[in-house]
Each structure stands twice: as structure tokens, then as C-alpha cells.
Amino acid sequence: MTPGRRGVTRAFRIGEAESMIRSALRMFPALLILPVAIAFNTQIAHAEPSLIELRQENERLREQVAELDARLAEARRRIARLEEIIRELRRQMDELDAPDPIPSPGDERVIEAEPEMQERIAEEKIVIPDDPLAAPDALLAALEKEYEDVLAHLPDNTEREAQQFLIEARRWARQASFRHRGQVEWMVRILDAAPTDGRDTEFTIQVIDGETGTEWGRPFRILIGGRDAGRLQADPARSMWMMGGVFAAQPVVNPDRRAPAIFDATQLIGPYIEFHYSFTIKSLRPLDREEIPGAASEEPDR
């Protein structure tokens, strides 16, 4: 082959190679896109079952919510029935007018006291001292007056009014328990002593005016325990004592007691508020005859 022909052949081959390279370069983007398309189609194929599962899970959750709603509705119906039963039981209890039990003290030296059950009638000629801490009936009279001034004018006809009244009543009761509290020393006459189911003894006591011998208020019952109860009963002939301690009002709000009933043991200061108080004994000593008002001028018993 002549040199001229060899040059032509070489040039042809070079041109053919360049043409092949250009074709390959034109096809290169398509080759890059092909794997991406395959991967995308694969993801779609895998995504379709996940969407189906999500729909199924959503349906299950809807069924569970519907079931819970049905249970909640049934529970509300049962609660409504129970509330109706409770209202009926309360109505029946109110009709029974059962007396409240006498509370037992947590400390044997703390006396929870209740006034004696009897109506105030003019024939009794009860003397009520002005000092609220002079006797239980004096405290009751003071609390009744405060109730009239602070609470009696508040309405309680509707449920909302009754709720607001109870809020004000509890506030007043807390304030009264702090306001009517103090150290006292009473001259008392022991009228009776009776054992109880517990360790305490129930005493019936009358407060006496130390100067005139006048009875202040009505006799009242208190629970006394421990050594003090033993001392008061050791000598039946000694009925007059000086009793010192802390006397405090403890009014209690009872939403179920709007009005007094015939057999109620606990008096009401006013609607919804029961009369309670406490006496913590600090000192106790028997009185000699000459200390008792009017006794010195009387002939001694023979």
C-alpha cells in the first residue's frame, strides 16, 4: 500500500472513532437517567403496599374510637342512674331525721361538746351573758347574731345561689373559729356523769356566775377522758369545780342541713351551719364551800 493510501485509511479510522465517541457522549445522559427511573419505579412499587396498610390502620383506629365513644356514653348513663339513686337515698335519710352521733375527741384532754337538746322557751328564764366565751349558750347567741348580720340576707333559692352561699358560709365559719377562741376559767356544777362506749365519760355540766351564783345558759354535755374524768368522779359530794382551759368555736358547714329537724342532736346556728365547739382542759380544782356563791350563808348539811 502506498503511503498516500495509508494516510487516507488512518484518517478514516480516526474519523470513525471520533464519530463513535460523539455517539457515546450523546447516549451518556440517557444511560444516567435509566437507573434513576428504575429506582423511582421500584419505590412506587414498594410505596403502594404502605399506603394500603395506612388506610387499614386508619380504619382500625376509627373502629376503636367508635367503640370507646359507645363505652363512654354507657358510663355516663350509669353515672346518671347512680346519681339519681344517691339523691333518693339522701331524701330518705332526711325523712328519717336521725340524730348526729356525739363526736369523740382525738385527744383525751380535748372535749368536743354539744349543747343539750331542748327548746328555748320563755319559761326556762335562761340567762345569757354578754361575753361569748362565758358559756356555750353565750357563744351560740353571739354566732347566731353574726349569722344574721353576715349570711342571713344571702339568697339560696337556685343551685348557683346555694353554691355561692356555701362558699361565703365556709369563709365565715373559718373566721369565727379564730375570732371566738380564748383562755377561760369557768365555775361549773357537775350534774351527771355517764360512761360511753369508749374510754371517755360524758358529763352534764352547768356554768355558774362566780359572783352571783346565777346559772349561765343551759346545762350541756361534754366528753372528758383520762385523769380529769377520774378526778371529777372521785368524790360525788364535790359537785362544784373551777375548770380552766381554751374554749373555741368550731362551726361546721353541712350542705345537707338547711333547717333543723325534731330529733337533731346538733343545733344549727343558721341554715347549713352546725354549732360545734371545743374545750381543752388546762386546770381543774374543786371549790371549797366558802368559794361557792351563797353557800357560806346557808346551813351546812347535817
Describe the fold and architecture:
This protein has two domains: 96 residues; 182 residues, no CATH class. It is α+β, with helices and mostly antiparallel strands and 302 residues long. Strand 3 and strand 4 form a beta hairpin. It has a six-stranded antiparallel beta barrel with strand order 1-4-3-2-5-9. A three-stranded antiparallel beta sheet has the order 6-8-7. 46% of the residues lie in helices and 22% in strands.
Keywords:
302 residues, alpha+beta, 2 domains, 6-stranded antiparallel β-barrel, 3-stranded antiparallel β-sheet, 9 strands, 22% strand
How would you briefly describe this protein structure?
The model is unreliable at 97-123 (pLDDT under 50).
Give the arrangement of secondary structure elements.
Layout: H1 3-96, E1 110-115, H2 136-150, H3 159-179, E2 181-195, E3 201-208, E4 215-224, H4 226-234, E5 240-249, E6 252-253, E7 268-270, E8 273-274, E9 277-286
Antiparallel strand pairs: 1-4, 1-9, 2-3, 2-5, 3-4, 5-9, 6-8, 7-8
Largest sheet: 6 strands, antiparallel, barrel
Query: What separation lies between the terminal Cα atoms?
Result: 177 Å
Number of domains: 2
Are there runs of 5+ residues with pLDDT below 50, and where?
A: 97-123
Any idea what the radius of gyration is?
47 Å
